């Protein structure tokens, strides 16, 4: 026999398991907030921009062939900027206690499509250190590219600076808490429906009628309830007898 679940039954399941769902959601929010505020270390980002263009040329200012050449070189420059030849000198000049591989993981080099501008971003737990690494990397690259490629077509557009109210790019506690709330709510609802699906016990007369397709003619009360009622009546009788004896 095919079973169907009505909207009323779904709402009844949610109502019955509401405390469980709220407990799961609240736990997820508390854990996410605790991890975001107290366990994760804030990470700051500082960026600098470099322009790939001939600084000195007797040709017109807007030479299409020269621009196309510079655009083709940008991908090569992106790789060279993160190469050990550049990073090891940055580590040496700034006296960093990290390897070239670790420094490489802090750097992000990207350029917009059909743009001669290269964006160099550095992430670190210290905002001043991130800015120093970004500026030093741009400086070293500008000097070394002349020796490596025998060209002098890189200039710094904007240096990395540390503002007074610098905020970390991660973690984002409020966003993490919001995500945890949604995930916790979905998990709570899912587990609630799973528990309801796995619970095959019969609790009400309506469930008996639905399962067997027959009307319920009678029901048996719980013996424990009858015993409690009997004890209550006996206590009432004893109270009356004491009252009558005192009155006499």
Automatic annotation (TrEMBL):
Residue numbers spanned by region Disordered: 227-248
Keyword field: Cell membrane, Membrane, Transmembrane, Transmembrane helix
One Pfam entry name: Wzz
Principal subcellular localization: membrane
Domain Polysaccharide chain length determinant N-terminal: 3-94
Cellular compartments annotated: Cell membrane
Membrane topology: Multi-pass membrane protein
Keyword Cell membrane: yes
Membrane-traversing stretches: 20-40, 174-195
Span of domain Tyrosine-protein kinase G-rich: 142-195
Family the UniProt entry places it in: Belongs to the CpsC/CapA family.
Name of the protein described by the UniProt record: Wzz/FepE/Etk N-terminal domain-containing protein
Organism of this sequence: Rossellomorea oryzaecorticis
């Amino acid at each position: 026999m095919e079973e169907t679940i009505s909207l009323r039954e779904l709402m009844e399941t949610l109502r019955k398991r509401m405390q469980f769902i709220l407990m799961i959601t609240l736990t997820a929010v508390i854990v996410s907030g605790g991890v975001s505020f107290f366990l994760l270390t804030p990470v700051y980002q500082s960026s600098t921009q470099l322009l790939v263009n001939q600084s000195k040329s007797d040709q017109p200012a807007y030479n299409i062939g020269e621009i196309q050449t510079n655009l083709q070189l940008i991908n090569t420059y992106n790789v060279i900027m993160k190469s050990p030849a550049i990073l090891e000198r940055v580590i040496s000049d700034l006296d960093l206690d990290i390897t070239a591989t670790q420094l490489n993981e802090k750097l992000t080099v990207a350029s917009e499509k059909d743009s001669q501008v290269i964006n160099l971003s550095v992430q670190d737990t210290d905002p001043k250190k991130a800015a120093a690494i970004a500026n030093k990397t741009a400086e070293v690259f500008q000097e070394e590219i002349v020796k490596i490629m025998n060209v002098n077509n890189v200039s710094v557009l904007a240096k990395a600076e540390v503002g007074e109210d610098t905020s970390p790019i991660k973690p984002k506690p409020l966003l993490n808490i919001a995500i945890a709330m949604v995930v916790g709510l979905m998990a709570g609802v899912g587990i609630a429906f799973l528990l309801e699906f796995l619970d095959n016990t019969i609790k009400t007369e309506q469930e008996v009628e639905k399962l067997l397709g027959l009307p319920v003619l009678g029901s048996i009360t719980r013996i424990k309830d009858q015993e409690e009622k009997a004890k209550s009546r006996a206590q009432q009788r004893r109270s009356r007898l004491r009252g009558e004896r005192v009155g006499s």
